Structure formats: structure tokens, C-alpha cells
Amino acid sequence: MLKPPALIALSAAVVLVLGGCTGSGPKAPDQPGGVPTELPQPPHTELPAPAPTTQPPAGSVAMTALPGAAELPGWTEGQSATGGGKEQLSVCQQNRWESAGANSIVHRSFSRGGDRAVVLAMSFDTPALASQAYQTTQGWFAGCAAPLAARGDGANQTLRARPVLVDNGRAEVTEWNWTSGGKQQNEAQGLTQVGNRIQVVALTGPQAAAGVEKLLPTAARKLAS
């Protein structure tokens, strides 16, 4: 018995629809032999690693923050270096400057005949950390008799901490005299804080305290630069 033309057409449409639903996704034309060919995948690209940085920490202190020969007339500028140095920069120093936790340290030395001067600057991550280092250094300068006595030297503080007016910060000067090998010696110490930075000055010789006191306002402006 022959099927009506309409029924034949409907059956063909059903077969086409069902045949189109069997695949799970697009495929490339089959290779000879009936093996499906997978679509090519995009190549994997490695992102380049960031280049190592050699930049100093934000707010770190540079040599330009230290006074030079122009700020210490009559003195000869000596060595400038990073770090706190291997030798004691002040007779009152009781530990390495690196122990203060600074993120950068620079120092510079000067000489004038048999006298010497050293200026050291440190920067910290925050002003609060700089304040802690300032207070620690204050303690060293106030208690200088102990390290001098340990060397067998008699000590006398001739100038207790005296404030010095500086821009945008605080500063003070102290001075100690001591006897070493039967000879009188002295050292004046200056201490300054501007923001997250502090600066230490140690200077020996006649009128050392007056010299430090005169230097501190200019040194504070350089420290802030």
C-alpha cells in the first residue's frame, strides 16, 4: 500500500531533525577512515615575570640629605658611605645603627687637624618608628658615662640636651668631656628628626657644641630634601 506524499515528507523531516541532535559540538571534517579530527587549541602563553627592582624603599635617605663641606666651613670632607659603618661614630654609641630598624642609612666623615666630625642620617618606614629611634639615641647621649667608664675614662656631661629650633621637626644638642690617657677630650652630639628621618652629628674639638648647634638648622633642611 503506498503512503500519502504528506506522510512521506513528515517522516523525512523527523529523520533530519533527529540526525542533527546526535553531535555534542562542532567538529572538523572527518579524516579519511572516519576518524574525527579535533579542533586545534590556542597555544598557552606564559606571562613574563616582573623584572627585579633595584629602587630604594619609598622615602629612603640619600647622600644629598647629608651636610657637606659647604655646611661645615674649615672642615675637610672625608668618606661618604651607606650603612652605619664598622666603627663607633660617637663615643656615646651603644649599639650598631642598623639595630634601630632603619630602611636606609648613610653617613659622612669630616676632619680638621686632630678633630673629627661625623654626620649620619637614617630613614624609617613611618615617622613613629623614627621617633622610637630618636628616643633610643637620646638615651645613648644621656647615658654616655657608661660606655666612657667601660673604657676607663672619667666622664662629665658639660651640656645636657638643649633644644634647637629647626624647620618641620625637632632637634637637640648635648656635649660630654672625658679624660683619656691624661688628656682632656670632648664631643658634642646633635640629634634631629624630620618626619620619617633622623640625623645624628658627632663633633670633637674646641667649641664643639656651638658648632653643632649652628649646623643643625641647615642639616635639618637637607634632611627633609
From TrEMBL:
Residues 39-55 have a biased composition (Pro residues). PROSITE patterns: PROKAR_LIPOPROTEIN (PS51257). This is PknH-like extracellular domain-containing protein. Keywords: Signal. Residues 1-19 form the signal peptide. It comes from Enemella dayhoffiae. The keyword Signal applies. Residues 25-57 are annotated as: Disordered.
